[in-house]
Amino acid sequence: MNLALRIYLRMAQAFPHEFKLLYGTDVMQLGEDVVEEIAKQRGVAGLIRLIADIAIRVPLEYLSEMRRDMRYAVRALIKSPGFALVGIVSLGLGMGVTTSVFSRTWAQMFRGLPAVANSQDLVMPQNPVSYYYTEQYRAQKGLFVGVAAFQTGVPFNVAFQSNGNAKPQRVFGQLVSPEYFSVLGVKPQRGRVLNPEMDKPGDAPVVVITDRFWRNRLNSSPDALGQTLRLNGQPATIVGITPKDFKGAMPIAPTELFVPVTVPAALAPELANDVLHKRDAKQFLALMRLAAGVTIESAEAGLDTVTRHLDEQDLSNPKRNDKGRRVTLLAGGTVLPIPRALKPVVIAFVAVLTGLVLTIACMNLANMLLARGAARRKELAIRLAVGASRFRLIRQMMSEGVLIAMLGGVAGFGLAYWLSILSSQIKLPQAVPEEIDNAMDWHALVFTFALAIMCGIGFSLVPALQATKADVAPTLKEGAAIQLRGYRRFGMRNLLVVGQVAGSLMLLLMTGFLVMGINKMSNIQTKFDPTRMYLLSIDPVRDGYSPEKAQALFEKLPERLKGVGAVRSIALAAEAPFSIVGRTAQLSAAKDSRDPSKKLKLVAKETVGAGYFATLSEPMLAGREFSEADQRIEILADGSKAVGLPIVLNESAARGLFGNGNAVGQRVTEDKQSYDVVGVVGDLKNGVPDDDQPASVMYLPLTRRDFASPPAGGMTIMVRSDAGIDALGGVRREIASIDPNLAVFDVRTLAEYLQTSRAFMRLALDMYGGIGLFGLVLAAIGLAGVTAYAVARRRKEIGIRMALGARKVQVLGLVLREGAALVTVGTALGFLGAMALVKMLSALTSVFSDAFNLSTNDPRLVVGAPLLLAALAMLACYIPARRSMKIDPVKALRQE
Amino acid sequence: MPKIDPQSFLPLKTQWFHIMLTLAGGEQHGYGIMQEVLERSAGKVRLWPATLYGSIKRLMEAGLIAESDERPAPELDDARRRYYRLTNFGRRVLEAESDRLQELVHAIRVKRAMVSQ
After folding, report:
1. Alpha helix (H) ranges present in chain B?
2. Contact A53 B34 (CB under 8 A)
3. What pLDDT does A175 receive?
4. Which of A492, A670, A747, B84 has its CA 20 to 30 A from that of A896?
């Protein structure tokens, strides 16, 4: 009983201060009075009930107090809508950007694949491997419970049997080994998925479709199972439908079909040339599920050893004795598998950038709250004097901050949502369309909420502590004009201003560097009007052409199209010009290949047809460009050619390999393949630079092999036409007259193509630029607020000075000097900070160093940004400082 | 006294109703309220101390009860305790609640009469 009473009394102490003042003694008294009686009547259960009652009431009292604080805060905000608006907007922007970046990073790098079991156990090597290797990997039972191979972004021309007349549709899918679904742990929604027992080479071709294909293209038909589709002209039977959200591994490219690798090459040209059995046909991505207890590190080490052994067995592999790591494993169960080493870099960059934005926004609000707190000193002093606890007042002031932050959080979440919709609408003009699911989930909501509370507490704690620190007596006596101690030296407000200026300059410089760098990288200039060039794609092999028939078509097509009116020139290419080229090669000048200092050069590979450069109005600097004769070159079955394949180098590549000597007529090698340089062309900007030499490109001729198995985007036909005449209709008619069943897709002008290809970059630019400007505006607002406050606070001093004969300009100078000192210190610190950050980020990864290298020397930024910021800051000081000139000394002095 | 419609407090929370009902008979202190409610309900309703004072605080804030300045006769007065009384507004709310309860009881009776016929 005594114990119960002691607990009860101790808990009564925990009531909020105000409640305790009013009812504390009563509650304790009553407890003492009744405890004996309760123990007698109800025993231990009664005592427990007594304690439970108070244990519930204490937090309830706190809650009701918080509710009151919130109501009070709402009223306070309604009374000063300007303050509330600035706070909500600035925090909303800050949190919106942060949430958007967080949610995208989360969705791409950490969220597990939809409909996949235990996606954290999935790994995949960074580089493509041959099918043969994946079969060897499968034998490593100690490391993996399952290994699958797949190719993603594989186009199929799909014709529906029920609807014979309709044009075939171009659908992207994956070519997968039969183990694929068991490795992913995906069960079918209907029918069956592929599995190694049932899907063997030589069986009648089957296909598994996604829920999306079933809904959109088969109208959710109940008899879809067993139906036969024509894929690239060959029949295949639908045996199963995957679950609703399943999008396959690496769902960056839209995937609607899963075709087993056991189908004949006629159905999937990707399987031609016996790639399944060739050791060096590195055309597949491997996907493994780790065995229980195996870490990704140990799997990587084990796989590295296995791969080394496999490489060493292959005597024709020139790299078989290379040292260094061969396999890097990525988290295969995420949308965008990136190397593990890169993850902290990406996270650090994102954290630094968004952290800066949020810090500036918070500092700004802290500053405004400080000013408000100072204006309310008298009110607070009175409340302290009549018995309010300091803790209570701090909580009340902070609830105002938290409320602003919450409203800002709501605005921010809305902004982030809008950004995610915006970015999902952007389509990159790639051969295989990209489709990244940036949809926000509850993680983002929790994140924003936590962020809001953190920000709210972060920026309102210090002002609340400051405001309630006042000694009651002098504040009441002197009123609001009391001097804050140490204001002139290192007062909190001065630190905030310096921090804010420094932070926003850092942000401005960083984003500026990125913007200019990206802009320079993506600046594409054509030598002619890009609206006068049409790009069309055809893919005859997937329309059911045999390789021979396709070759014949491409032989006669350019001649036929040149005959169309208004067509000035025409060329074929494997990719649209100025596209982002993924394939690279390590070239060396053959002559000194024995030389240890042999010149190796990483170049991008593009495959182009006859007349390509003439069609782009790009003159040859030396030698010749490809002719129709080059397009007839036969490549041997092992991918080589008896004589060297002719290639064209661009200027950068030629200079890199041969210095200033003549490149034409020289021989270069890539692995065991050798090429003869027949021409050198000027550097065409192609968008994305490589690490060391941004624009080195080798151009390979289109050959009969390319015509027999065109790339995933089909073959691109470039048509230059005369101004003012629409050549497109004629071209389309001509193609239809050759074969009405030939599907023509991805039709657009070069201008349209370039515009969409830059849309993504532009979004990034707008975003970074927006963040930088946003920081600038915030800093200006903050500074204006501080100066206005300083002027108001020094009315009396200024009044005395003016009464003693100070001129208006002198007074203005006095006020501005203080601001200028703060701005100068902040600018210097910010400049140093930005440079340090640039160094740090550049050291971490080449992605940043490329962008930074192109721009950190730009005087427009290095000099311009600090000047712009300083000028804006001084303007922000000047406007409120002007008010100091209007102070009437008589009034100012009488006021006290 | 705030100009609030007494109806807006209905139905009254159980504890509020018991406290107000007790105070309808005259001012009383916390312990007295607790005892009277206990007796009136034959031991079924016990207002636990913390809940009692939490309710008193809210009743005071709502203006339904007030602290009483009058003290009872000196020989009955317990100097340590604070006394509470029903305000006029509180009385109106209590009456509105009794009306509501009566109507309920009436409705039940009518129903029962219909069923038994």
Report:
1. 14-24, 30-40, 49-62, 88-116
2. no
3. 92
4. A492
Which of B31, B43, B53 is opposite residue A33, by nearest beta carbon?
B31
Question: Which residues 55-84 on chain A approach chain B with CB closer than 8 angstroms?
Answer: 56-58, 60-61
Nearest CA among A382, A585, A423 for reference residue A97: A423
Q: pLDDT digit string (tens) for A766-796?
A: 777 777 777 777 777 777 777 777 777 777 7
Straight-line distance from the first to the last Cα atom of chain B, in angstroms, rounded to the nearest whole number: 49
CATH of the domain at B35: 1.10.10.10
- Is A22 in the B-facing interface, judged by CB distances under 8 Å? yes
The torsion angles phi and psi of A618, rounded to 5 degrees, stand at -105, 110
Which tokens go with A790?
């300083």
* Minimal C-alpha gap between A54 and chain B (Å): 5
Residues in CB range of B71: below 8 A, 6 or more apart: B77, B83
Name the residue with tokens 């915030």.
A778
Chain B residues with CB inside 8 Å of A19's CB? 57
Residue A842 one-letter amino acid:
S
- Rounded distance between C-alpha atoms, residue A659 and residue A665, angstroms: 14
What residue type is B45 in one-letter code? V
Q: What order of strands is seen across the sheet that includes strand B28-29? A: B28-29, B83-86, B65-67
Interface contact B49-A34, CB threshold 8 A: yes
The token duo for A856 is 């950190």
The range of the structural domain enclosing residue B40 comes to 10-116
Q: What is the pLDDT along chain B (117 residues), one digit of tens a residue?
A: 456 788 888 888 888 999 999 999 888 888 889 999 989 888 888 888 889 999 999 999 888 999 887 666 666 666 667 889 999 999 999 999 999 999 999 999 999 988 876
Which residue in B43, B48, B82 is closest to A26 by CB distance?
Answer: B82
Residues of B in contact with A41 (CB under 8 A): 43
Give the residue from chain B lying closest to A8, CA to CA.
B50
- Closest-approach residue (CA) in chain B for A26: B81
Evaluate if residue A658 carries a pLDDT over 60. yes
Q: Mind listing the pLDDT tens digit for each residue in A342-379?
A: 777 777 777 777 787 788 778 777 877 777 776 777 77
pTM of the model: 0.66
Q: B-side interface with A, Cβ within 8 Å?
A: 30-31, 34, 43, 48-54, 56-57, 80-82
Which residues lie across from A603 on neighbouring strands?
A585
> Is residue B54 included in any domain, yes or no?
yes
Q: Which residues pair with A605 in a beta bridge?
A: A698
CB of A709 closer than 8 Å to CB of A272: yes
Q: Do B81 and A49 touch (CB under 8 A)?
A: no
Whole-angstrom distance, CA of residue A709 vs CA of residue A547: 7
Chain-chain contact of B49 with A54 (C-beta, under 8 angstroms):
yes
Strands A673-681 and A645-650: parallel
Q: How far is CA A357 from the centre of its chain?
A: 17
Interface predicted TM-score (ipTM):
0.83
| Whether residue A391 has pLDDT greater than 50 | yes
Check: CB of residue A576 under 8 Å from CB of residue A535: yes
Least CA distance to A55: which residue of chain B? B50
What does residue A569 show for φ and ψ, rounded to 5 degrees?
-150, 165
One DSSP character per residue, A664-677 reads TT-EEEETTEEEEE
More confident residue, A581 or A550: A550
Burial of B22 per CB tally in 10 Å (0-12, 13-18, 19+) = buried
Asked if the structure places residue B15 within a domain, the reply is yes
Q: Is residue B99 part of a domain?
A: yes
The answer to whether position B103 is within a domain reads: yes
- HSE-up (13 A, CA, CB side) for residue A880: 23
A169-208, pLDDT tens digit by residue?
Answer: 888 899 999 999 999 999 999 999 998 888 888 888 999 9
Closest CA to A705 of A491, A550, A476, A539: A550
**Chain A residue numbers touching B48 (CB-CB < 8 A):** 49-50, 53-54
